[in-house]
Amino acid sequence: MNKNKTTHLMAGVFIIIFVAVFLILTGRFIYIQATGEINGVSLEEWAEQKRTSSFTLSAERGKIYDNNGMVLAYDRPTYRMYAIIDETYSEKSEAPLHVEDPQKTAEILAPLLDVEVSDILDPLKRGLENNRFQVEFGKIGKEIPQKKKDEIEELNIPGIQFEEEALRYYPNGMFASHIIGFARETEVKTEEGIRDEIVGIAGMENEMNELLGGKQGYISYQRDRYNKKLLDPKEIIHLPEDGDDVYLTIDQKIQTLMEEALSQVDEQYNPKKMTAIVMDPKTGKVLAMSSRPSYDPNNPTNVENWYNDVISTPFEPGSTIKMFTWAAAIEEGVYNGAEKFKSGSYQPNEKINKINDHNGGKGWGPISYDEGFQRSSNVAAAKLAWEKLGADTFLEYLHAFDFDEETGIDLPGEVSGQILYNWPLEKITTAFGQGSTTTPIQQMKAATAIANGGKMLQPYVIDKIVDSSTGETIEQKEPRVVGEPISEGTSQQVLELLDSVVNGENGTGKSYQLDDYTVGGKSGTAEIPNPDGPGYLTGRENYVFSFLGMAPIEDPQLMMYVSVQQPELEPTEARSAPVSFIFKNVMENSLHYLNIDPSNEEKDVVQQLTVPKVVGGNSSEIVAELKDKGLEVSLVGDGESIVSASVEEGETVFPSERVILVTDEPVMPDITGWSLRDVMKLAELMQLKTETFGNGYVVTQNIPKGTPLKKNDYLGIELLPPNEEQDEETNNNEEGTEGISDESTSQEE
């Protein structure tokens, strides 16, 4: 009886427990069914999230153009490789769609991507061990060019897939790199999480990053376990907004002239630094700007100098500043150009160090202030600032020319120079460019007042902003007068003085004369502070040699500044040689290119040639006609008629410019020795996909000469600077230049 009672009791307990658990579970199910939630999580939302795929729709980054519509930066498609390793992806397919054999897959891919087998195999193994659906290959799987992608796809390797990605590309390589800057794929935090996005790092890419970048879009839809859309996918699409296009004031032809001249001087003289800038003094537009060392924005590694020295590196400018000292004296009414003074040396009082002229303090005896400007006399500048103007009045003019502030140019990283004006000696030396510092762009801005009737203009490099979708101009820059430090009469008188420096009997700038145009300007030979101690560096080459010139001097249409720091010169070579080579090549050719009427009519003028109608003509006849005109012609193909050309009817070109003619039977020409600029012309005409390695001139091409060409062919080229394989000769001359405090002798200037 006791045993039965115990059994019945325990059975009752178990029934009660079972009923309780049943009621709890049933209640839980009823609650879940009624509310659709578990622990505050909506099951409907959770399920929807699990079966919903979302993808970012990348906006195309805006392009950067020069002032003629030449593309300087754009998004070039490349590909990211990934591998699907989940075997369920192949369930509904007869052929495998996932990686079946990781070892074999790695062995096939490794040589094609020029990597080790383990670089492919290890990510595949890790993905399988962690039950991943797909795996990425990091850096080795990114930025794969079209040609390499096509090679891999032809092998039909199961599971290997590609996704198109944009890569920022700069077709002209090192061209204007400090202005354009560069953009790279970077991890960016967004509301949706972290994603890769092309972001501007330097230059215009950084300055206009938000405008160029546009807005990303996205697409989402519901799918099954095989990643296929459901019949009712509830698809949501937010289209991306492509970035706007930026048109620069930079002129591709003038910039190219500058880049080539700088590269030649860099090769021949191996200077520490160089800067150059060409401006339209009537508007403030920067037509060309470059510096060395530079870099290729397509491969910005081992960069020696990130700074745009034209705007970011102040230095003691030397005698180029004298044009503003004379302008201040003329404007203030204290200048008499015919008045004589004793040149050689000058000491205002016993507490101020003696000021010497650049010929060791010998001077030229009693000379006029006009002649003092021609000869670049430090004594004349010192006396004008200290005695004629007075230190306080001279400082007012330095402020009026904005030497104490940034120019406001639309580029990132501008740094203003500094006016050192604490001690009497500093107030005097500032008059001839020592002590106080400035940047090339500050000097160019101030010089617009001299070239433009007294009106000082703000320099700028952005011409306009254009909507990339509609072509509508969103913003158009206009010239902006930011000051009027001198009158029109003063500017005219200073122009005459600048003319005398280059063309006068005693001028120090004779080496800057052009064949067809009258140049005016001022040279400078600035001392370099000794980084290891007090004072300045000594030695014939330890200076920053510069020239600020404008032409035609009667009514300046172009203004140019060039500086070359510490070039390696031959013992008998003029120290102005590197600077004058750059200035003369760029200025002369640029004035002709802009169709500025020559001012030296009696001299032979290098005329541009007008292109006749070429498209549709007989190839042999057209080639003969263009060669008779003195043009360099490259014929692409053996066909009888011309179907396209790198020039248009009526266009004007220089005799040295290469003209590319494409026939109706195009074949690959021998492009060895071509510049990158000419190769890009060919690629554009034939719609080739190009990939470049290095800088300079073509030394190898992947498409052999005579191979038939068709649209979308891949052209890979290697470029090297001229004579790169030859040992570079350097000049180690250590001859001193005792007594030279600011400029070399007039023969060297």
Task: Tag the structure with descriptive keywords.
serine-type D-Ala-D-Ala carboxypeptidase activity; five-stranded antiparallel beta sheet; Penicillin-binding protein 2a (Domain 2); globular; 33 strands; EC 3.4.16.4; alpha+beta; disordered C terminus; Beta-lactamase; 4 domains; PBP_dimer
Number of self-contained structural domains? 4
Low-confidence stretches: 602-606, 722-749
The CATH homologous superfamily of the largest domain: DD-peptidase/beta-lactamase superfamily
User: Judging from the principal axes of the Cα atoms, what is the shape?
Assistant: globular
| Overall pLDDT level | 84
Largest sheet: 7 strands, mixed
CATH level 1 name of the largest domain: Alpha Beta
Give the count of helical stretches. Answer: 20
From the N-terminal CA to the C-terminal CA, the straight-line distance is: 131 Å
**CATH topology name of the largest domain:** Beta-lactamase
Counting DSSP E segments of at least 2 residues, the number of strands comes to 33
β-sheet strand percentage: 15-25%
Helix/strand/pairing category = alpha+beta
**Percent in helix:** 25-40%
Using the CA coordinates, give the radius of gyration.
35 Å
CATH architecture of the largest domain: 3-Layer(aba) Sandwich
Enzyme class: hydrolase
GO molecular function, one term: penicillin binding
Keywords: Membrane, Transmembrane, Transmembrane helix
Pfam families: PASTA, PBP_dimer, Transpeptidase
